[in-house]
Each structure stands twice: as structure tokens, then as C-alpha cells.
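Re: [help] complex structure
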Amino acid sequence: MPAVHHKLLLEDALQDSPQTRSLLSVFEEDSGNLTEYTNQLLQTLQRVFGAQSEMGLATEQLSRQLLDYEKKNFALGKGDEEVITTLQSFAKTVGELNSLHSGLANQMADSMVFPLIQFREKDLTEISTLKEIFGIATDEHEAAMVKYSRLPKKKENEKLKADMMKEVAYTRRKQHQASLQYYCALNALQYRKRVAMLEPMLGYTQAQ
Amino acid sequence: MPAVHHKLLLEDALQDSPQTRSLLSVFEEDSGNLTEYTNQLLQTLQRVFGAQSEMGLATEQLSRQLLDYEKKNFALGKGDEEVITTLQSFAKTVGELNSLHSGLANQMADSMVFPLIQFREKDLTEISTLKEIFGIATDEHEAAMVKYSRLPKKKENEKLKADMMKEVAYTRRKQHQASLQYYCALNALQYRKRVAMLEPMLGYTQAQ
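Output below.
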């Protein structure tokens, strides 16, 4: 593993040296790992949210069920009044717990699950889009270089040669631009990932 | 609906009058309704227990997941120490919540779900078994009566007639015994059902 700097220097993008490429691959490996971890964490957070949400629904059903006892109109209802009253007061308590559980589930959705979904959809997706654009630009530049190097050295080709040089320069500029954006995003990810990892847990703790 | 007494009188079992039969049918309707309600309530209580149990499992997974961040060994790990430490302390908090949730789930199983399962398996099943036995005894008694009434009135049949009378008396005694047990169980159910309905909710409230 190469010496780890914490930043891809934008001024290195133009030269695109093997050292820079090697550092880039470290950043790419890191963001790949982060994507994997984010997906796993998101699955777990959604499981926690799901359980909390189900708890709300289950207690809601229980509260209704307890009130249903009275509606059953038991043929031998005499002496049941006490049971009915007690079940009604239980239903009230369970109903209050239900509000608590449902509120907690909503808070979890908003401040625990949602921020991580946003991190995945916005930041991680941006990285993979920019990686793709950078890859295409690199391929195009290399193709232009190969075409240029294969030109016959004859004098009458000067016009064609000049056109090809322009193409090489153009694709090089495009690749340079793509790499600048890609480097920027990869650098930014290193800062954003800290917030992204901690924010859902702050939301969770706050909800409790 | 006939006037509702709260007790099937055992001394009425022998005479087995239409009035007693009618009162019996009220008790049977009541215990049928109670069985239906018990099954629904049990389903809901098991749903609540399931949600609580899933909450324990989900928080356990989350606690593990948070500790996994360190094991990911991110290539660009420098600066991550803070994130790792914070996630570890979150993992500890979540772990404590997990113990709470799991403990709560166990308490729910023991003092909320279990008593109602027992009521269903013991009391309600006893009623349906005794109802069946009573039905069979009634059928056998009626069959004996029919056979007896169809005996030819000739004098040489005296021996056969005496045997048939014994059979009628024997099946009548069996039916009487079955009805005594059945009445007893139906009467007892009226007392037990109150405890059976309230006990799981007391367990639930205690668990919270």
C-alpha cells in the first residue's frame, strides 16, 4: 500500500503520474468499502425502524382488541362490567404506548434512516457517476493518442496530423476536467463520511 | 334469549329439561364466543411479543454493525479514530437498549403470552372435550331409548326387555355424569375467564 496522503492534489491531476494513479486507487478502494458498509448499515437501520414501526402497529391492534371485548356482547355478560372497565383502562394505557411507539418510528425514519439514504443516493452515487465519466474520458484520450501515434510520418499528412493533435489535446482537456471533479468528490467524501456515519446514530439516540 | 342465570344447577342435570337445555345453549354460545375472542387476543399478543423480540434482534445486529466499522480497516483510516470511538460508544448504548428489549420480550413471553396460551390449552380445551363426551353420551342414551321403545310387546321378550332397560339406565347414568362434569366446567369458565382476560394485560403492564 502506498504512503497514504489524505488528499488527492488537484495539481497532480494534469500530470496523471503513476504515483497519482496509485493514490487514486487507494481512494477508490476506500469509497468502495464505504459503499459496502453504508449498504449494510442502512439495512440494519431499516430493520430497527421496521421493528419500531411494527411495534406501533401491534400495540394499536392490541388497544382495539381490548375494546372489542365489550362489543362481543357475551350472553353471560353479567359480572363482566368489571372486566370491561379494566380492559378499557388497559386499552387506554396501550393506546398511549402506541402513540409513543409510532412517534418513535417516525423520528427514526426522519433522523436515522433518511440521512443515510441521502448520503447513499447523493454522495456515493455522485462518486460512481464521476468515476464512470472519468473512465470514459480516459479511454477516449487513450484512443486519440493511439490514433495519433499510428499516423504515417509523410509530409502530406501535416493537416491530418494537426487535426489529430487537436483531438488529443481536446480529449486530454476533457479527461483533466473529469479527473478534477472526481478528485474533488473523493476528497469531499473523506469529510462527509464522518458526518454520514454519525448522523443516523445521533438521530437514533435523540429519538430514544 | 332466555333469562340468564349465572350458573347451570347440577341438580337440573338429572331431569335434563328443555329449560336446562336452553340455558346450556346460552353457556355454550358464551364459551364459543370466548374461544373466538381468546384466539384473536392471543394472535395480537403474539404480534406484540414478536415486534418486541424483533426489536431486540435488530438492536443486537445494529450494535454489532457499529463495531464492524473498525474492522473494515478503511485504507484512508487516518482521522477515522474519532469516528471509531464514537461508533463504539453508540454500540455500547445500543447494546444496553438491546438487553432491555430482549429482557422485555422474555417477560412478555412469560407473563403475557404464556398465561393466555395456558387458558386456551387447559380451560377451553377441557370444555370442548367435555362437550364432545357429553354429546356422545347423549347419543348413546337416545339410541338405547329408541331400541327399547321398538321392542315388541310380547311376553317372551321379558328377558330382553329387562336387558334393554338396564342399558337405558346405564347410558342415562353415563350421560348424567358427563353432563355434571360439563356443567361444572362451564360454570367454572365464567369465573376463570375474568382472570384469563386480565392476567396477560397485568403481565404486559408490569413488563413495561
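The first helix of chain A runs from residue 11 to 15.
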